[in-house]
């Protein structure tokens, strides 16, 4: 996957909560991401399962249920989009810098879902995407990098410590690559679409299991990610030209590999060091996650992502 080097990037929906122009952590937007740290580490995995078993996702997306009442920035933390505007101007920047790559993917996701929902008579409201390092306060409470990327329905924003991508490769053993990373963001955008459509209300907090509402919500977000992937090369920028080009079968395979590495069964058995317990599934098995991404990709139709339909086979 590549980005059109002449395409202009829009940084207006990106907030940088890291260092440089404000916040904690490493350099400002456009700089190299520091190696190591962050992501869904072993300690984070243990905490993750404890919290999902006790509290579920609460209708959220991606991470665990966060303690409420802690909305807003941490003390001394500020947002800074000026460095984004300076560093992430074109597709050429997206091809060379991880920060700008994520900006470009966000642009593509906004473009696709804005048009797709408009055709269904739904007004699209873009989510803000926040880059943070170490910890962050959100409309859903406070969180650390151990949560991994997540969507907060309390403020309708997405949060990611970019070091998670390194964690996927080094600890989870994922293939990695730009399209695999794009899948992660597309999944979180899927949770935003669910929030706009009210799908979150169909999930009972704390419910787990292979056919639980939590699993259905996550699998649908995977399917929505696949739908975007099917249209990524035809979604234009303001210039009318597609921002993303050259998606290959290797790219799709890398996305599927990532989906498999964050399945409940894989995490429990390979990273959690325990037995697979389907009663505690909250995100779906590796096979399920691959299946529903593939459903979205092969059909390109959000209507085919109804994991809540009566009698639907979740896989």
| Largest pleated sheet | 4 strands, mixed
Helix content, binned percent: 40-55%
Classification by helices and strands: alpha/beta
Order of helices and strands: EEHHHHEEEEEHHHEHHH
What is the topology?
Layout lengths: L1 E2 L10 E3 L25 H14 L26 H6 L3 H4 L3 H22 L8 E4 L3 E4 L2 E4 L5 E3 L4 E4 L3 H7 L7 H20 L15 H19 L12 E2 L3 H13 L2 H8 L14 H14 L16
Parallel strand pairs: 2-3, 3-7
Antiparallel strand pairs: 1-8, 4-5, 6-7
What this model shows, in words?
This protein is of the alpha/beta class and about 325 residues long. The chain has 10 helices and 8 strands. It has a 4-stranded mixed β-sheet with strand order 2-3-7-6, covered by helices on one side. Helix 4 (about 100-120) packs parallel to helix 6, helix 6 (about 180-195) packs across helix 8 and helix 7 runs parallel beside helix 10 (about 285-300). The model is unreliable at about 20-60 and about 65-80 (pLDDT under 50).
Task: Summarize the model shown.
The protein is an alpha/beta fold and 315 residues long. 40% of the residues lie in helices and 8% in strands. The strands form three sheets. It has a four-stranded mixed sheet, covered by helices on one side. A two-stranded antiparallel sheet has the order 1-8.
Summary keywords:
315 residues, 8 strands, four-stranded mixed sheet, two-stranded antiparallel sheet
């Amino acid at each position: 996957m590549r980005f059109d080097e002449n395409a202009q990037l829009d940084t207006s929906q990106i907030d940088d909560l890291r260092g440089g122009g404000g916040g904690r952590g490493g350099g400002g937007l456009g700089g190299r991401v520091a190696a190591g740290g962050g992501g869904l580490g072993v300690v984070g995995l243990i905490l993750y399962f404890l919290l999902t078993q006790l509290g579920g996702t609460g209708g959220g997306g991606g991470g665990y249920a966060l303690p409420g009442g802690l909305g807003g920035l941490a003390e001394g933390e500020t947002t800074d989009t000026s460095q984004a505007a300076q560093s992430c101007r074109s597709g050429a920047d997206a091809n060379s810098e991880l920060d700008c790559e994520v900006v470009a993917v966000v642009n593509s996701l906004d473009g696709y879902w804005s048009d797709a929902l408009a055709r269904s008579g739904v007004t699209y409201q873009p989510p803000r995407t926040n880059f943070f390092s170490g910890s962050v306060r959100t409309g859903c409470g406070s969180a650390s990098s151990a949560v991994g990327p997540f969507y907060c329905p309390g403020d309708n924003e997405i949060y990611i410590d970019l070091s998670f991508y390194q964690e996927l490769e080094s600890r989870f053993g994922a293939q990695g690559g730009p399209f695999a990373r794009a899948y992660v963001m597309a999944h979180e955008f899927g949770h935003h679409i669910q929030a706009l459509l009210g799908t979150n209300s169909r999930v009972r907090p704390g419910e787990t299991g292979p056919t639980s509402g939590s699993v259905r919500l996550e699998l649908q977000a995977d399917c929505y990610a696949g739908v975007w992937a099917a249209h990524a090369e035809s979604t234009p920028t303001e210039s009318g030209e597609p921002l993303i080009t050259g998606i290959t079968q290797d790219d799709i395979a890398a996305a599927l590999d990532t989906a498999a590495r964050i399945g409940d069964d894989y995490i429990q058995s390979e990273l959690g060091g325990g037995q697979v317990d389907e009663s505690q599934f909250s995100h779906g098995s590796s096979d399920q996650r691959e299946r529903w991404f593939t459903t979205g990709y092969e059909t390109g139709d959000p209507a085919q992502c109804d994991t809540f339909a009566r009698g639907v086979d979740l896989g």
